[in-house]
Specification:
Residues 91-119 are annotated as: Disordered. This protein is mainly alpha-helical. It has helices at 2-28, 37-97, 99-102, 120-153. It has one domain (2-153). 82% of the residues lie in helices and 0% in strands. The model has no long low-confidence stretch (mean pLDDT 74).
Length: 154
């Protein structure tokens, strides 16, 4: 799309240059007749049109630049919000990494005998792989968001 726009703008510029060149060439010709007001008016209108076209082109470029800067600002805000959400989720995952905090162990000795630890080790073993699998993914996502944010800011 950008290349098409550049070619259209470039073609208009060439048309204006040729128009100005022809106007200057016709103005520099020596005449056998008197001054031609019609040619003078055409050359003046061509100059005005060329000036207006260049002003419109500059406005169009400024508009495109403003739009791209606005899009970049919105993308930066979105990335910052996503990074903040991930930063909030990391402590939660770190809490999940600590399986001892999730297990409530109450010791009720019966007649001096220690309570059975049956089932407690299995719970710890099941949670550890899940947390270990999730932690790298979240860290990778956070790094991706931070890199994208840095690129947008540059």
């Amino acid at each position: 799309m950008g290349d098409e726009i550049k070619t259209v703008i470039g073609q208009r510029d060439f048309d204006l240059v040729y128009l100005l060149k022809d106007s200057l060439a016709s103005a520099s010709l020596k005449r056998l007749t008197g001054f031609n007001h019609e040619e003078h008016e055409r050359a003046k209108l061509a100059g005005l049109i060329a000036r207006h076209m260049s002003v419109l082109k500059e406005c169009w470029i400024d508009s495109k630049l403003f739009k791209s800067l606005e899009d970049q600002r919105i993308e930066n805000e979105r990335l910052a919000e996503a990074a903040a959400r991930l930063a909030e989720e990391i402590p939660e995952l770190n809490q999940e990494d600590n399986p001892d905090a999730d297990i409530l162990m109450i010791d009720y000795p019966e007649d001096g005998e220690p309570s059975s630890d049956k089932g407690k080790a299995a719970l710890v073993e099941e949670q550890a792989p899940l947390v270990e699998e999730q932690a790298p993914l979240v860290v990778d996502q956070l790094q991706i968001f931070q890199e994208a944010l840095r690129e947008q800011q540059e």
